[in-house]
Write a structure and sequence with these properties.
This protein is α+β, with helices and mostly antiparallel strands and 120 residues long. The protein contains four helices and four strands; from the N terminus they run H-H-E-E-E-H-H-E.
Length: 120
Amino acid sequence: MARPSTLLTPEVVDGLLARLDDGDDARDVVKPLVKHYLGALAQRAPGRSVEVRVPPFAAVQCIEGSTHTRGTPPAVVEMDAATWIALARGSLAWSEASADRTRVRASGQRSDLSPHLPLD
């Protein structure tokens, strides 16, 4: 489960999103949003069968399924920060993002995140 410290208040999220929408894609804007949305995903879909990675900022294990204790989980989803934030906000559909293998790299069972998105 995500650490509570990764989840931001709605006011902080709104402020960061306003900065992002104004073109500010600085690390101090993007990193907390990535961690917040990964934490929200882990709360919405707890488990350890899928690892969602948004390098270089964070990764989280989520979604119920086979129990995983060491090494790489049975399913891995990796994407850049802009794609993750767009998916979490609902401004990008999972079907569109996952069809573009340069945006989302997903492998393994349960790697379809569409039932859990958007997070806003």
